[in-house]
Specification:
10-stranded mixed β-sheet; 28 strands; 20% helix; globular
């Protein structure tokens, strides 16, 4: 079991990884410090992004610097024991999970990389992948063919349905990663990229794809949003007419995700999805 860092040790680690990656390459203590960083990420003591008192999320740039240093200093090595063979970076190999971690990883091709945090009660169905710096909160479900990209943050009791893709963000160093807050439901084959934020209890119907520049049309409040799904919002794939004479002549339309309602306190995700998709 990894020993938690003291507050002083955490501060020292943050100071150490405030240096540029080029300087860290030459420092003799960097490999040891990288191990400390990855251990702290795995137990959830530090995170690649954190929420402030106002509810805003910010990237921890020093954490991301440390992860980049881990890749920069790694050698490419053989990883014996993986079906068909595997070759990866030496400092960020797959984690070796045990029952003591309190998670259930069903056999069948799943890989959880060094520096990824899975809280107790998480269930991972095969095959899925959690990359370095990612965080999955207690009681969450990671269904088959799910990608939890580098530094992506997933809250408690979140359901990531089959084939959900949470894009990874390591660079630019200050960029916010993809974040899914507590009790959200992300439907099958949804894709979240470029630091999109899904607030708590939001529901995304199957097939919703969002980037930081995607316009989300809120039909309830008559507004357009970008980069963030509000708390409790129910988002479904939609379309709007494409502009221009050619598009009008052919009756073409473009993708336009829409908020069709907001969950109330008594409505669970499966019920609300059934209602809006019926």
């Amino acid at each position: 079991m990894t020993t938690a860092l003291t507050a002083t040790a955490t501060t020292e680690l943050a100071t150490f990884f405030s240096a540029p990656v080029a300087d860290l390459r030459e420092h003799p203590q960097t490999p040891e410090r990288i191990d400390e960083l990855l251990d702290a990420l795995e137990v959830g003591q530090i995170r690649a992004a954190e929420q402030d008192a106002r509810g805003d999320w910010h990237a921890n740039t020093w954490v991301k610097t440390g992860i980049l240093a881990a890749f920069a200093l790694s050698q490419t090595i053989d990883l014996p024991g993986w079906p068909g063979g595997a070759v990866d970076k030496s400092l960020v190999p797959p984690r070796q999970l045990t029952a003591a971690d309190g998670v259930r990883v069903v056999p069948g091709g799943t890989s959880v990389r060094r520096g990824a945090h899975l809280a107790p009660g998480v269930v991972v169905m095969p095959p899925s992948y959690a990359n370095t710096g990612s965080f999955v909160g207690a009681g969450s479900m990671v269904d088959s063919h799910v990608l939890v990209g580098s530094c992506a943050q997933v809250g408690q009791r979140v359901h990531l349905s089959a084939a959900v893709q949470l894009g990874g963000v390591l660079e630019p160093i200050g960029a916010r990663p993809v974040i899914v807050e507590d009790d959200a439901f992300i439907g099958a084959q949804c894709g979240l990229y470029e630091g999109v934020l899904v607030r708590h209890r939001a529901v995304l119907a199957p097939g919703v794809v969002l980037t930081s520049r995607t316009t989300i049309h809120d039909l309830v409040n008559g507004r357009d949003l970008r980069g963030e799904v509000p708390a409790g919002a129910v988002v479904v794939p939609g379309s709007r007419p494409a502009r221009g004479e050619y598009a009008e002549r052919l009756g073409l339309s473009v993708y336009a995700p829409v908020i069709v309602k907001f969950r109330d306190d008594s409505t669970d995700a499966s019920t609300v999805l059934e209602e809006v998709l019926r």
